[in-house]
């Protein structure tokens, strides 16, 4: 059973389909998954018991929902297998999405500037920051930190420092994404949006949801498991 002292990340570990609920409620389960239900309720000026009840009503305690299978499988992997999975399932997917979104966002900024210029200019700037940060982050993981982790089965101070740097990167990316979500009301296209506009927002939503899962897998599962080897 869960209570108001339960961490958000632990709820996702019980039932990974709750990622959808937390996204909908704008509750950070990846970068700030260490916060408890009580802490989140205080931040959002909600009654903690009401939030707990809402979470319980949406949870599948048997974890039988299909959405949870990928995360359940990930938990059972070795560190080496987790690294391979992250690169294949998230790095490649997110690189492809960044590549596809970039020209589309430029296009709708130009075409729809007269009606939605302020929002699109800010979104364009935030996306550019996110794209730069993620692309550099992927390289740091693939070329520096992941190899260090695989070479040092027992965590060294150097490796833990590199892991902490990645966690800081995750928080920075998460903050950019939160601003993008607030700016667009979870990528809701305006009524006069063309098909390209709508499609671009669909891709942006797909990207950020994947980044959230990606960060959760690293922060709350792989890094936690790796640190445990040194205890």
Report on this structure.
The chain has 231 residues and is mainly α. The chain is 75% helix and 0% strand. It has nine helices and no strands. The longest helix is centred in the middle third of the chain and has 39 residues.
What is the strand and helix layout of this fold?
Elements: H1 8-14, H2 18-24, H3 37-43, H4 48-58, H5 69-75, H6 79-111, H7 113-151, H8 157-184, H9 195-228
Helix pairs in contact: 3-4, 6-7, 6-9, 7-8, 8-9
Summary, kept brief:
This protein has 231 residues and is mostly helical.
Relevant terms:
231 residues; mainly alpha; 9 helices; globular
- Measured on Cα atoms, how large is the radius of gyration? 19 Å
Estimate percent helicity.
Answer: over 70%
Strand percent estimate? under 5%
Distance between the termini: 27 Å
Instruction: Please state the overall shape, judged from the principal axes of the Cα atoms.
Output: globular
The description of the largest β-sheet is: none
SS-derived structural category: mainly alpha
Helices and strands, in order, run as HHHHHHHHH
Mean pLDDT equals 91
Number of strands: 0
Number of helices: 9
Instruction: Give the low-pLDDT segments.
Output: 64-69
């Amino acid at each position: 059973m869960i209570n108001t002292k339960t961490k958000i990340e632990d709820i996702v570990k019980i039932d990974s389909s709750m990622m959808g609920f937390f996204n909908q409620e704008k509750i950070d389960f990846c970068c700030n998954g260490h916060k408890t239900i009580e802490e989140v309720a205080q931040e959002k000026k909600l009654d903690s018991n009401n939030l707990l009840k809402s979470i319980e009503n949406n949870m599948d305690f048997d974890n039988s929902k299909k959405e949870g299978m990928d995360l359940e499988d990930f938990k059972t992997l070795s560190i080496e297998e987790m690294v391979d999975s992250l690169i294949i399932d998230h790095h490649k997917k997110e690189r492809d999405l960044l590549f596809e979104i970039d020209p589309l966002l430029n296009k709708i900024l130009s075409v729809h500037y007269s009606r939605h210029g302020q929002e699109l200019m800010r979104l364009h700037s935030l996306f550019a920051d996110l794209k730069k940060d993620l692309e550099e982050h992927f390289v740091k993981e693939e070329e520096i930190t992941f190899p260090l982790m695989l070479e040092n089965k027992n965590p060294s101070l150097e490796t833990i420092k590199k892991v902490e740097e990645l966690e800081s990167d995750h928080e920075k990316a998460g903050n950019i994404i939160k601003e993008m979500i607030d700016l667009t009301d979870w990528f809701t296209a305006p009524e006069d949006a063309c098909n390209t506009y709508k499609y671009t927002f669909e891709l942006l939503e797909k990207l950020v949801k994947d980044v959230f899962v990606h960060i959760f897998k690293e922060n709350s599962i792989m890094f936690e498991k790796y640190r445990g080897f040194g205890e």
